């Protein structure tokens, strides 16, 4: 497929903008799964429409679920046939949420569900969820590889029960098991054993959205229990994607300007909410009001010493800010980013250094020191957040060319429009 590069625009002065963001990827794909397994129709209000969520919607349609457009919303009606239809082939693209949330649903289908994705998707961690599903009663043919592609031989039902899993590679391995668990005959009890599970807010989001849909969920440390039972439909309102606010709010810091994101929820499980503390630590003035969340830059950008394990998906943009900061940064707790869309630690170090920067990989993070940057081609490795990181660098560095900008459509297809509008160019 031909790919197009994009010249990241420099900021001509302090930005002053309000940027309304589309819905959260993480909430949209959870809402879709829960709606597909509910007993009643669900209206998903203002879902994100991006590659990751359209792939999830298509996978569910293929399984016999009705997903209809109604204005900004999606109306989801559970399959007319229970159990879910099969045989089908599911394309997960490069979406972690689809590759981890869909297989437990596939085990409830009536027949073969073959699951595959982009070449890189075949390298992302899947073995723990394949093994866990087998322990819960599923039959999966993965040719012994422990990764995509594989076929789930659904039998219309799954026993469920207790299982132990090492989810240190991705929180989604646990979320996937929990989201479908109300429909397992015995529900599920998932215990994590191993190095810490990353992305705690995303697990809280899974628990919260399950409870909102009527599921009985108990949690204690590294243990999650979901009782079998019906899920209700109704309305599932999707918040703006706060992780995708990172680059826009970050632009206020880089340019000494001001950016507001409207509709910032007062109370949320999204990891992007941590931007309030992170951007304040980097020198921003952060305020929440009726207009949304506003970050005002002072013109000074401080480095950051932070454990980002809970909020790993913010790393690419934070690393770009760190590369423009006046003092060193140390970002840790993020070894699992090596299994994301690309090995993000390697990719960020390589691309920042290619622009003249000083970034060093740590076993579980990055160390970034101030150094003047110059223009050049920024490779993006099919990673939407590498595009976002490059755009941030381009605000302050002349001649940053961003490879394959369309890859940003994984979560934010309108990115370049929103970016140029924010800059008034
Ligand atoms: O459950 C989710 O919606 C997500 C969980 C996180 O995955 P990891 O725990 O694999 O980092 C996050 O990085 C990803 O973007 C979305
Ligand atoms: C890691 C990410 O995505 P995925 O859901 O594919 O894991 C991300 O969006 O930063």
Automatic annotation (TrEMBL):
<feature type="binding site">
    <location>
        <position position="171"/>
    </location>
    <ligand>
        <name>3-phosphoshikimate</name>
    </ligand>
</feature>
<dbReference type="GO" id="GO:0009073">
    <property type="term" value="P:aromatic amino acid family biosynthetic process"/>
</dbReference>
<feature type="binding site">
    <location>
        <position position="340"/>
    </location>
    <ligand>
        <name>3-phosphoshikimate</name>
    </ligand>
</feature>
<dbReference type="GO" id="GO:0008652">
    <property type="term" value="P:amino acid biosynthetic process"/>
</dbReference>
<feature type="binding site">
    <location>
        <position position="199"/>
    </location>
    <ligand>
        <name>3-phosphoshikimate</name>
    </ligand>
</feature>
<keyword id="KW-0057">Aromatic amino acid biosynthesis</keyword>
<feature type="binding site">
    <location>
        <position position="172"/>
    </location>
    <ligand>
        <name>3-phosphoshikimate</name>
    </ligand>
</feature>
<comment type="pathway">
    <text>Metabolic intermediate biosynthesis; chorismate biosynthesis; chorismate from D-erythrose 4-phosphate and phosphoenolpyruvate: step 6/7.</text>
</comment>
<feature type="binding site">
    <location>
        <position position="26"/>
    </location>
    <ligand>
        <name>3-phosphoshikimate</name>
    </ligand>
</feature>
<dbReference type="GO" id="GO:0003866">
    <property type="term" value="F:3-phosphoshikimate 1-carboxyvinyltransferase activity"/>
</dbReference>
<feature type="binding site">
    <location>
        <position position="170"/>
    </location>
    <ligand>
        <name>3-phosphoshikimate</name>
    </ligand>
</feature>
<dbReference type="GO" id="GO:0005737">
    <property type="term" value="C:cytoplasm"/>
</dbReference>
<feature type="binding site">
    <location>
        <position position="96"/>
    </location>
    <ligand>
        <name>phosphoenolpyruvate</name>
    </ligand>
</feature>
<dbReference type="Pfam" id="PF00275">
    <property type="entry name" value="EPSP_synthase"/>
</dbReference>
<dbReference type="InterPro" id="IPR001986">
    <property type="entry name" value="Enolpyruvate_Tfrase_dom"/>
</dbReference>
<feature type="binding site">
    <location>
        <position position="385"/>
    </location>
    <ligand>
        <name>phosphoenolpyruvate</name>
    </ligand>
</feature>
<dbReference type="InterPro" id="IPR006264">
    <property type="entry name" value="EPSP_synthase"/>
</dbReference>
<keyword id="KW-0028">Amino-acid biosynthesis</keyword>
<feature type="binding site">
    <location>
        <position position="25"/>
    </location>
    <ligand>
        <name>phosphoenolpyruvate</name>
    </ligand>
</feature>
<feature type="binding site">
    <location>
        <position position="344"/>
    </location>
    <ligand>
        <name>phosphoenolpyruvate</name>
    </ligand>
</feature>
<dbReference type="GO" id="GO:0009423">
    <property type="term" value="P:chorismate biosynthetic process"/>
</dbReference>
<feature type="active site" description="Proton acceptor">
    <location>
        <position position="313"/>
    </location>
</feature>
<protein>
    <recommendedName>
        <fullName>3-phosphoshikimate 1-carboxyvinyltransferase</fullName>
        <ecNumber>2.5.1.19</ecNumber>
    </recommendedName>
</protein>
<comment type="similarity">
    <text>Belongs to the EPSP synthase family.</text>
</comment>
<dbReference type="InterPro" id="IPR013792">
    <property type="entry name" value="RNA3'P_cycl/enolpyr_Trfase_a/b"/>
</dbReference>
<feature type="binding site">
    <location>
        <position position="172"/>
    </location>
    <ligand>
        <name>phosphoenolpyruvate</name>
    </ligand>
</feature>
<feature type="binding site">
    <location>
        <position position="30"/>
    </location>
    <ligand>
        <name>3-phosphoshikimate</name>
    </ligand>
</feature>
<feature type="domain" description="Enolpyruvate transferase">
    <location>
        <begin position="12"/>
        <end position="417"/>
    </location>
</feature>
<feature type="binding site">
    <location>
        <position position="124"/>
    </location>
    <ligand>
        <name>phosphoenolpyruvate</name>
    </ligand>
</feature>
<keyword id="KW-0808">Transferase</keyword>
<comment type="subunit">
    <text>Monomer.</text>
</comment>
<dbReference type="InterPro" id="IPR036968">
    <property type="entry name" value="Enolpyruvate_Tfrase_sf"/>
</dbReference>
<feature type="binding site">
    <location>
        <position position="25"/>
    </location>
    <ligand>
        <name>3-phosphoshikimate</name>
    </ligand>
</feature>
<feature type="binding site">
    <location>
        <position position="313"/>
    </location>
    <ligand>
        <name>3-phosphoshikimate</name>
    </ligand>
</feature>
<comment type="function">
    <text>Catalyzes the transfer of the enolpyruvyl moiety of phosphoenolpyruvate (PEP) to the 5-hydroxyl of shikimate-3-phosphate (S3P) to produce enolpyruvyl shikimate-3-phosphate and inorganic phosphate.</text>
</comment>
<keyword id="KW-0963">Cytoplasm</keyword>
<feature type="binding site">
    <location>
        <position position="410"/>
    </location>
    <ligand>
        <name>phosphoenolpyruvate</name>
    </ligand>
</feature>
<dbReference type="InterPro" id="IPR023193">
    <property type="entry name" value="EPSP_synthase_CS"/>
</dbReference>
């Amino acid at each position: 497929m031909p790919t197009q590069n994009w010249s990241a625009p420099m900021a001509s002065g302090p930005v002053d903008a309000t940027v309304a963001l589309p819905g959260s990827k993480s909430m949209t794909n959870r809402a879709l799964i829960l709606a597909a397994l509910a007993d009643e129709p669900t209206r998903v209000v203002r879902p994100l429409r991006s590659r990751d969520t359209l792939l999830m919607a298509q996978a569910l349609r293929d399984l016999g679920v009705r997903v209809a457009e109604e204005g900004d919303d999606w109306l989801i009606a559970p399959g007319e046939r229970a159990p879910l239809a099969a045989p089908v082939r599911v394309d997960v693209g490069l979406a972690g949420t689809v590759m981890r949330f869909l297989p437990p649903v596939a085990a409830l289908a009536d027949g073969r569900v073959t699951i595959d994705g982009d070449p890189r998707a075949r390298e992302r961690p899947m073995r723990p969820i394949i093994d866990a599903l087998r322990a819960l009663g599923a039959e999966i043919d993965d040719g012994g590889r422990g990764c995509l592609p594989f076929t789930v031989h659904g039998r219309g039902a799954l026993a469920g029960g207790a299982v132990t899993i090492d989810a240190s590679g991705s929180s989604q391995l646990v979320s996937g098991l929990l989201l479908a668990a109300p429909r397992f005959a015995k529900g599920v009890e998932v215990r994590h054993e191993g190095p810490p599970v990353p992305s705690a807010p995303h697990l809280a989001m899974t628990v919260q959205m399950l409870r909102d849909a009527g599921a009985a969920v108990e949690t204690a440390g590294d243990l999650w229990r979901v009782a079998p039972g019906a899920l209700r439909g109704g309305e599932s309102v999707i918040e703006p994607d706060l992780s995708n606010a990172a680059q826009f709010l970050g632009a206020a810091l880089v340019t000494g300007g001001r950016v507001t994101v409207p509709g910032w929820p007062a109370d949320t499980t999204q990891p992007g909410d941590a931007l309030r503390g992170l951007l304040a630590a980097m020198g921003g003035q952060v305020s929440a009001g009726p207009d949304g969340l506003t970050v005002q830059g002072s013109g000074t950008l401080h480095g950051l010493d932070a454990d980002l394990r809970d909020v790993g998906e913010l790393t690419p943009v934070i690393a770009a800010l760190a590369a423009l900061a006046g003092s060193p940064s140390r970002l840790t707790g993020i070894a699992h980013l090596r299994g994301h869309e690309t090995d993000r630690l390697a990719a960020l170090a390589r691309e920042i250094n290619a622009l003249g920067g000083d970034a060093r990989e740590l076993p579980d993070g990055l160390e970034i020191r101030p150094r003047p940057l110059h223009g050049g081609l920024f490779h993006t490795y099919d990673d939407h957040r590498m595009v976002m990181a490059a755009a941030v660098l381009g605000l302050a560095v002349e001649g940053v060319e961003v490879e394959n900008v369309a890859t940003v459509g994984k979560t934010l297809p309108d990115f370049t429009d929103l970016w140029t509008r924010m800059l008034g160019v």
